[in-house]
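Deliverable D5.2: sample structural annotation.
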Amino acid sequence: MPALWGQVTYQQFISQDQFFQAYQLAETRLQTHPQDSAALFFRGYSLLKLGEPEAAYASLLAAEAAGFNAPHLLRLAQSMSLAQLGKKEHALALLDSLTHSGFANLSALQDPLLAPLKAYPTYQTAVDSARTRSFPCLSSPAHRHFDFWIGEWEVFVGPTKVGDNSITRQAGGCSILEQYTTTRDYIGHSLNFYDPYDDKWKQIWIDKTQSISKYVESERRPGYLQFVTTPESTPAHRRLRMTFELQHNGEVTQFIEQWNTKEEDWQAVFNGIYRRKK
């Protein structure tokens, strides 16, 4: 049988918090295959969750000696066991090794079994490192440039409210979703994202009329982002320029212009003011 016999079944039990069943399965396997590294690991992990950290740590060491092939999981479980045994220095050393090896499972580091380590800088460094690796866009200034638009807004043209716009961060901070509605049954949404390939922000806008506008950044500076449509937009003859700018009072303006071929100039078609909902 393969070295990781039963691993899927172990994980099924553990995902349902059925730790005693996972422990029994591992014990059964070890009666005939005492060096099965997966069985040793899952026995140790199950014992840890069942409140037996000393026995758990012994089984986890045996799994390591038998060559368990998921070293990150192994070191994390060992660190949990040591934390529960009060051996914080050793537990923190294991966490530090996880950080330097690129560990990115943020939710695993928030396991209550690691609670005894939370007051230590090494633990916080591990969490911060995992968060950065799990959500790299959140720590990237380029990806955060358009954050000034995020929020729940009422949209005005002059004194008249024309719609509501919900702007939310999506995909771990790697995109921004716009959902626009109006009182006159016009709706549309856009997906906005920074593309590191060409160092430009982009937007794809789709509305209920089947209009699709594809924008690419034309100018960027703090509190300011301007787009122009690309040739792939529909209708193809319409060329638009759209500018977002953060105001000193926290409002955001959205100014849309259309290129007038006859006049060879930009002409305003929308001048909206975003005011945050209270």
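Annotation notes: The two ends are 63 Å apart (CA to CA). Residues 131 and 222 are 25 Å apart (CA to CA).
The annotation will be released with the project's public dataset once the embargo ends.
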